[in-house]
Amino acid sequence: MSPAMSPKFFRVLCCLFIAAFAAAAVPAHAQVEDVLKKVQRDGVARVIVRLKADSGRAAWSPREPAASQRAAVAAAVEGAQPSLRRARIGAYKAFRTLPLVSTTVTQDQLLSLMSADDVESVALVRTERKIGTETSQLASSVPSIDVNAAWAKGYDGTGYAVAVIDDGFNLNHPMLKGKNVGDACFSADFGTTTKNNCPSGKSPQIGLGAASNCPAGATRCAHGTHVASVAVGNDGINFGVARGAKLVPIDVFSTVTDPIECGLDPMPCELTDSLAVLYALDYINEHAADLKIAAVNLSIGGGLRDGYCDDDPRKSVIDMLRQKGIAVAVAASNGGVTGKISTPACVSSAVGVGATDDGTTVASFSNFSSALDVMAPGVSVLAASGTGAGLVSMSGTSVAAPHVAGSWAVMRQAFPNGQFDAMEQALKQTGIPVTRQNSGVTIPKIQVGKAIDRLNGKDQRVFNNLVSSTAPALGQSFLRIFNNSAAIGTVTATMRDSATGAVVGTWTSPSIPAQASPQIALQTIELNAVPAGGQPITNNARAYYNFEITSTFPGYVQHIVWARNGGVFANLTSCSGGYSDDSSTVFNVHASTLQGYNSRLRMVNAGAATDHAVLKIYDANSGAQIGQWTSPDIAAGASLEISGAQLEAQVDALRLAVNSSLLHYNVRLSNLTGYLQHVIENSTVGALVDMTSKCDLGVAASTVVTK
Questions:
Q1: Which of 380, 414, 448 is the last residue of a domain?
Q2: What is the CA radius of gyration of the chain?
Q3: Would 439 be classed as within a structural domain?
Q4: Staple 553 to which of 287, 426, 489, 667, CB 3.0 to 4.6 Å?
Q5: Residue 518 near residue 527 (C-beta atoms within 8 A)
Q6: Residues forming a β-bridge with 368
């Protein structure tokens, strides 16, 4: 574009192109405006050209093996030669497993490419930076994500590797020594002001030492070394998250002497761009299998985006890695902004990571938005130094992201064939909810051991012995199962002989509506279970069972025993992972017509001010909401009790439902900062029994589907 082109003409040209390509239903061409602006300002622009490669003699597919993708890419590049020649593109660089080429274009070259039938899109190469760290301990940050529990089970990432895309790596540091495999450098040259940092001076460089250009006294390896040691470090005393995993170190940062590019950073500065990162991801995709890569860490960021940024050219390869079970953990950046995070953390298929302290407080520097996936510790984390054998303390979302990448390697060791969506969902479901004041957004801080337990079903095991129907003198056991979702679903139980641990059968429940909670007698379960040995389960005169339960929905389970002879109805629930943290939901509250076992609800105000409670009431059979009740004001630190009979008297719809034979209903507390307790009065013996405790249901890994 001529420097003399007027801004008005440029705006008209942009609009014409955008309108034309929108009419052609090619959303990616929306990036043309950015390329045109760059060409107008500088005369040229570095771009990523996506070729159409879904037809022809070797069609490209994101699900094909790397070898097939290489063949398809070669065919696409060959087929695009006439278009590249017409556009007078003399120098370009193709990717290995992606149907992309990178080049530098003028205005005329851009126009020619955009009109070519075999070009799908053209995107601008954008500058990106290390996500700044604030120098202020693995010893406290790692336990805060519950990874010690995973180590105790033998899961530490052994057999897998974490790829870290960053600046240089001090691979002689005791925490990283001997861990590196697949070293690579995609640091690039551009013009006279951007020089690569590959040790050979030529880019790309693949092989031992390619990512460890760490001159004596220089700090260029500080960031990458620290980040890598958080993910996989292990010197026998100090441990990263995946302490048994290997490291794939990839250097993508170049030395820049252009003051405009460096901005506020002192010159010379170190920068990378979306193209170098894309080459690194292409390399990872090609070598994912032979290097046993479980996760990728990107503590790199560009501009802030509101919501998802799925127009980023890197999304397609992040999608491909996700299909291989590889998580791309990306730091959200450190602007302290609420409502926006940086590219490429905002790519929907990436795992965007924000930072907390070692507790549940969102770090003041962390960007925070609903586009984030998880949180992890990133405040004053002590890890490997890039300039010697010691340790340094750093803070930032840069430090939080490798906690997640390392966690994924640990989980991949535990579940080599685990579905990505199920594993991600387990991390989210078992995470500790954290929020920033006035954000209206809650994001889970990961808890690795609990996520593994959930996928294993271990946090769903009811350890207290369920009483067999062949031993009625011991009482009658019931399971109460609450579907805390918006969709119908089922639960499946593995039944074990409590004395031997042997599996004696499996049982799948009837369909359970959303927000419903059937109470199912163990005798019914025995009669409908599928025996493990072909013989009826009740043929064996066992007294007790142990159950392991998974479900197609999130929810809760209770083990209830009714000792008819003694007149006692009791909650004997027990779970290996600890009781559910949900303190606002109680289920199977007894209607007043169940005489002798009357329910009471206790509301406790744990807030700092007087407030009222709102109880929302649901039919335990159908899950339909019946109505709600608002309490009188409850003073701070005080509690209020209401009996089932009193609640029915004050909620007309509930009273009518009970009079029409409703025996159980579910109650959810809202508005009040506090908790809800359910007790039953065993009036025959004059005892009160707490019915509140419940176990979280684990969602079966094969049924979980997320974004």
A1: 414
A2: 30
A3: no
A4: 489
A5: no
A6: 338
Helix (H, G, I), strand (E, B) or coil at 61: coil
Residue 552 lies in a domain: yes
Average pLDDT, the chain: 88
Pair 599, 581 in one domain: yes
> Based on the domain organization, do 573 and 654 belong to the same domain?
yes
- Tell whether 110 and 141 lie within a shared domain: no
Could you tell me the CA-to-CA distances from 136 to 40, 85, 299, 368, 645 in Å, in that order?
43, 54, 18, 21, 59
User: Which candidate, 464, 496, 694, places its Cα nearest to that of 578?
Assistant: 694
The stretch 686-698 carries a mean pLDDT of: 88
Note whether 151 and 297 are same-domain residues. yes
Task: Tell whether 433 is covered by a domain.
Answer: no
Close Cβ partners of 435 (under 8 Å, ≥ 6 residues apart): 362, 441, 442, 443
656: left (phi over 0), alpha (psi -120 to 50) or beta: alpha
Both 365 and 461 in one domain: the answer is no
pLDDT in tens, 133-173: 543 356 678 889 999 999 999 999 999 999 999 999 999 99
CATH code at position 165: 3.40.50.200
Q: Where are the alpha helices (DSSP H) in 386-521?
A: 397-414, 420-430, 448-456
Q: What stretches of 506-553 show up as alpha helix (H) in DSSP?
A: 522-528
Which tokens is 106 given?
Answer: 């003028």
Q: What residues are paired with 234 via a beta bridge?
A: 239
CA distances from 361 to 129, 311, 325, 377, 379 (A): 26, 32, 30, 9, 10
Angle at CA of residue 226, ends 221 and 227, nearest 5°: 105
What pLDDT does residue 589 have?
97
User: Cα separations (Å) of 222 from 169, 187, 382, 390, 573?
Assistant: 8, 16, 13, 11, 50
Least confident of 136-145, 269-278, 371-380: 136-145
pTM here? Answer: 0.67
| Alpha helices for 509-615 (secondary structure H) | 522-528
Tell me the per-residue pLDDT of 425-475, one tens digit each, with 9 for 90 and over. 889 988 998 999 989 999 999 999 988 877 765 545 566 678 888 888 888
The total of structural domains in the chain comes to 3
Which position has the token pair 């719809």?
653
271 within domain boundaries: yes
Q: What is the extent of the structural domain holding 672?
A: 457-702
Pair (109, 137) in one structural domain: no
Examine the domain organization and report whether 408 and 473 are in the same domain. no
